[in-house]
Amino acid sequence: MGVTLIVKCTQCGDLTLSAKGQKTKICPYCGTNINLLKAQKLVASNTAFEASEILRKLKSEQKINHNKFIGHA
């Protein structure tokens, strides 16, 4: 197993996982073909499981911050 990255979609801004060395990926949220050489890389992890756990936490934090911004608890 290789390094797993958390990258930001260049179109919708949502976060997704990709393998290091992978050149493109289809965003599972908006369908955009992400050029991984140009996409913002947020985290690199040694295991896919660890990257998945980090991604889950990041998405949870995004949801909390979004709800605070729009006035929800």
Report what the structure shows.
The structure is a single chain. The strands form 2 sheets. Strands 2-1-5 form a 3-stranded antiparallel sheet, with helices on one face. A two-stranded antiparallel sheet has the order 3-4. It has one helix spanning 48-69, and strands at 4-8, 15-19, 24-26, 33-35, 41-45. It contains 1 helix and 5 strands, in the order E-E-E-E-E-H. The longest helix has 22 residues, at 48-69. The chain is α+β, with helices and mostly antiparallel strands.
> Structural class of the secondary elements?
alpha+beta
Shape descriptor: globular
- Average pLDDT confidence is 88
Residue windows where pLDDT falls under 50 for at least 5 positions: none
Total beta strands: 5
Keywords summarizing the entry:
single chain, 73 residues, alpha+beta, 3-stranded antiparallel beta sheet, two-stranded antiparallel sheet, 1 helix, 30% helix
Short description:
The protein has one helix and five strands, in the order E-E-E-E-E-H. The chain has one helix at 48-69, and strands at residues 4-8, 15-19, 24-26, 33-35, 41-45.
Could you give the topology of this structure?
Blueprint lengths: L3 E5 L6 E5 L4 E3 L6 E3 L5 E5 L2 H22 L4
Antiparallel strand pairs: 1-2, 1-5, 3-4
